[in-house]
Amino acid sequence: MNILLSYSILHYDPFKDETNHLYWGSSANILARTLYSILSDLGHVTYIQASEYQSIPEKHYDLFIGIILNFEKIRTIIHPHKSILFAVNMHPRERNQLLLQFVHREKLSKSSFCLWDLTNVNEAEDAVKKADFILGVGNMVTYNSYIKQGIHPTKIKMINYNVGPVISCGVTPIKLHEPIKYVYIVSEIGLRKGFDILFDLFTNEKIIDLPFSLSIIGRTTNRYYDDKVSKFKDILKDKISYHGWIDVSSREFTEVMANHHYIILPSLEEGQAGSILDGLRHGIVPIISRNSGIDFSPFGYLENSLNSPLNVDILVKTLS
Fold first, then answer.
1. How far apart are the C-alpha atoms of 229 and 170, rounded to whole Å?
2. Residue 54 and residue 292: Cα distance in Å, rounded?
3. I need a labelling partner for 221 at 20 to 30 A (CA). Which of 93, 112, 155, 269 fits?
4. How many C-beta atoms surround the C-beta of residue 47 within 10 A?
């Protein structure tokens, strides 16, 4: 069987070893290399960068599996026997609506959007409609985003990440009268990952003077969030630390995760947040929104809104 897999060479290149990958251990890397491994057991796999579809080797392909980017262009060129859209986020129309509604409702600046926050709905919906099947990643919230947009239940199959092997690193115990330690870890600090909710929550008058520390890990998506991180640091002073990006496969990442009690992620839109699963395997309790794509938040699910009494109540519980 000849198989064409269209993904991202930046995140995974089958011709490079682990040490030569910039993002080894990231969600995109894990998904791409896992797909490549599984498909390689089924036949010969040709792996291409989705943006460079013009360079597809000319041959017959029995199966094509790829992300939304240029999916329909590739499918039209190669005419595979079957095609599978690999959907790592919610339905594109749902994604756009969630982000646009949040910005409008909370009166945020339009500069909170980064270039890739909003998807090209026409291209994305074309891929969703023309694919023979959709392989999605996430929970029922993710799944229902497709059903709500008219996708037949038999067309979409959902999978979940494996949490991975548990790290025996000695999770920091919670001690009386010591600050509770939270970590917000994302690939991109911005609108979609709920950073505005995080800022609103930890600067709330009922929270700000309580004993806690907050670590922020990730890269900002634009100047708007550069400024918001700086403002956050000015307000919380020594209660907050900003680490930038840390390689998830590094020793530094393991040490950071071992030094926190809770991982918090109020995502507006996801497929399934890999950083939460990293937290789980390090023994950290998650505080998340339902849109994070994971059905485990012991203290309750955060609302995707600012000035939320429920969100404050959840955080107060974890600080008790």
1. 30
2. 35
3. 93
4. 20
pTM score of the predicted model: 0.88
Buried b (16+ CB within 10 A) or exposed e, 49-87: ebeebeebeeeebebbbbbbbbbbbbbebbebeebbbbb
Return the residue matching tokens 């930890």. Answer: 202
Closest CA to 142 of 212, 204, 192, 92: 92
Select from 191, 183, 264 the least CA-distant residue to 222.
Answer: 191
Closest CA to 197 of 307, 319, 316, 57: 307
Residue with tokens 């995974």: 12
**The pair of three-digit structure tokens given for residue 201, joined into one six-digit string:** 């929550």
Task: List the pLDDT tens digit at each of the 320 positions of the chain.
Answer: 999 999 998 889 999 988 888 777 778 888 899 999 999 999 999 999 998 888 888 889 999 999 999 999 999 999 999 999 999 999 999 999 999 999 999 999 999 999 999 988 888 889 999 999 999 999 999 999 999 999 999 999 999 887 777 776 555 666 666 889 999 999 899 999 999 999 999 999 999 999 999 999 999 999 999 999 999 999 999 999 998 888 777 888 888 888 899 999 999 999 999 889 888 888 899 999 999 999 999 999 999 999 999 999 999 999 88
